[in-house]
Amino acid sequence: MADLRVSFCGIEFKNPILTASGTFGFGREYAKYYDLSELGGVGPKGLTPVPRAGNPTPRAAETQSGMLNAIGLQNPGVDAFIRDELPFLRAFDTRVVANISANTAEEYGEMAAKLSDAGVDIIEVNVSCPNVRAGGMQFGVTAEGISSVTARAKQSSSVPIVVKLSPNVTDIAEMARAAEGAGADGLSLINTLLGMRINVKTRRPALANVTGGLSGPAVFPVAVRMIWQARSAVRLPIIGMGGVCSGEGAAELMLAGASLVAVGTASFIDPMAPIKIRDGLGRYMDENGFATPARLTGAVII
Amino acid sequence: MSNCVVTASRLIGKNIRSLSVRWAEKPPKPGQFVNIRADGAFLRRPISVCDYFDGTLTVVFEVRGEGTRALAQCVPGQLLDVLGPLGQGFQLPKSGDVLLVGGGAGSAPMLCAAKALSGRASVILGFRGAEHVVLDREIADAAREVYITTNDGSRGFKGFPTLLMPELLKKPYAAVFVCGPRPLMKAVAQIAKDFGIPCQVSLEERMACGVGACLVCVCKTRENGAETMRRICSDGPVFDAAEVIW
Fold first, then answer.
1. ipTM
2. Across residues A87-113, what is the average pLDDT?
3. Closest chain A residue to B216 measured between Cα atoms?
4. Cβ separation B42–A60 shorter than 8 A
5. Which residues contact A213 (CB under 8 A, 6 or more apart)?
6. Are A25 and B215 in contact (CB < 8 Å)?
7. pLDDT confidence of B225, banded at 50, 70, 90?
8. What's the whole-number mean pLDDT along residues B76-89?
9. What is the pLDDT of residue B10?
10. Co-location of B52 and B141 in the same domain
11. CB atoms within 10 A of CB B232
12. Interface check A22 vs B, CB under 8 A
């Protein structure tokens, strides 16, 4: 069996498989299905400076090979996370990648300081939530926005800062370079693609929020392309995500340039998906002669 | 999660089907649900448990869209991917009678509940019309009494189940349980409140994960004076009606 250990931003992960923020709660639900220590890392639900109730329902709509969601960052706030949820996650032998959203660059800085003090392993700066008015995608669709938020978070944090990029941009390479230029330690991509559905019987939008973020296998090829483009533009290590549902899918994102792979929507269909994907990746590596995950990263032949 | 063998699949009312599988997982409690993977549908379909007996789990559902149409095609002998039992079911009072109110396919969990209450249940089932009436005989076998209402009066009493509540609630009841369309549940909860009887409602909402992780299926509730968004799949689907903000 291949050695699945991998180093990312100077931190060792026991395997490259993480869970994607927003699809995993704070880990308690899926801990009923498997030992979270089996994972390379966990991505708890996105946090904001103060608690948020999120959007009205319906918050999800099914699509061909995917789903739209518009949760709107419902979360108990960063302080409650540190007090009530982080100790639970810390009881497992796995890395914690906290995800943060805020209204201003200053708030991103304050949250990054709190979370790095509280002992998370990595902070994922979310500038790409498509479902909130302020503090989401508005920062992630311009180079200036990405720069200001990244610089502030980096200044305030003692742990690596990974910037989660939005796919809802014309030039992903420009956004990746902005993050790199502002001092980011890594990138993660892709967040969801902005979408919409209409119930043709009622002529009303399927989501109360009207638009929402598309995830699932439907977005996978977009993720492969954007990871490859970002990898070609910058030297930063990448957490790849976007519709992965098999070991081969994880390998594909790694060949495109990802060092770690986050599993999201697949967990909704099969709670064991992250573990099955980890095992499938190991089998792929054995069968194809990859001794370590690092050898896979960016190994696409073009 | 398990791959279960389908043991029965039949049409029991207009557009309403019953589907049974062999069940080796934890026995469900009344009001809990299972999340079923349907051919061709991306997300699972959450459906409340209608009956569990001797290793057979039965759900009853209305054929409404792609997912339920696919489930309608299931035949005995095939394998079905069923996750569960999920969620928090009804809290059965230790003593006293319980009034169960079911509307349409929302009648399904009332069979489970009536059986668990062994003779302590009075039941009102409401349907659109006579051809939509389902589970009346099965529930009658388990309950002390069953009343049927139909919107058009083609069977039983004409009107909604709420019509019969004031008369029935003249006798003492320990609790009211309701599952059905939201306006019905809201009205039943209000009448129960007027009579000072605790009411439990089984809420429904579009779901994704079904286990409490994704925050898709939330409802607004009041808990210890504070408004909170709680998850229907894992904090519910059954809630104390006094906590629900309609």
1. 0.93
2. 96
3. A59
4. no
5. A68, A69, A70, A129, A130, A131, A191, A192, A193, A194, A195
6. yes
7. confident
8. 97
9. 96
10. no
11. 26
12. yes
- Comparing C-alpha atoms, which of B236, B243, B219, B210 is closest to residue B43? B210
Contact A177, A143 (CB under 8 A): yes
**Mean pLDDT of all residues in A213-234:** 98
B129 belongs to a structural domain: yes
Q: Does A235 touch chain B (CB under 8 A)?
A: no
- Nearest chain B residue to A61, by CA: B206
Q: What is the pLDDT of residues A236-263, one digit of tens each?
A: 999 999 999 999 999 999 999 999 999 9
Which of A25, A61, A270 minimises the CB distance to B212? A25
The CA distances from residue A118 to A20, A250, A288, in Å, are 20, 30, 40
Q: Which domains does chain A have, with CATH numbers?
A: 6-296 (3.20.20.70)
What's the gap in Å between the CA of B216 and the closest CA on chain A? Answer: 5
Looking at residue B135, which CATH number applies to its domain?
Answer: 3.40.50.80
Catalytic residue among A68, A118, A129, A273: A129
Interface test with B, best of A34, A268, A272 (most B CBs within 10 A): A268
Active site residue A9: no
Model confidence, pTM: 0.94
Average pLDDT, chain A: 96
**Domain housing B103:** 98-202
